[in-house]
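Q: Structure tokens for this one, please.
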Amino acid sequence: MTYDGYTQFLFYIIKIIDFNFYLIIFMIKSLNS
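A: Here is the predicted structure, written as tokens:
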């Protein structure tokens, strides 16, 4: 795997984690209110 491919793979994982993180926060806020 090339360095560029590894970087894109890393950014892809970060995007997924980031999306799930905001989704969880949104769900918690919805439950609290």
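A few notes: The CA atoms of residues 25 and 31 lie 10 Å apart. The mean pLDDT is 90.
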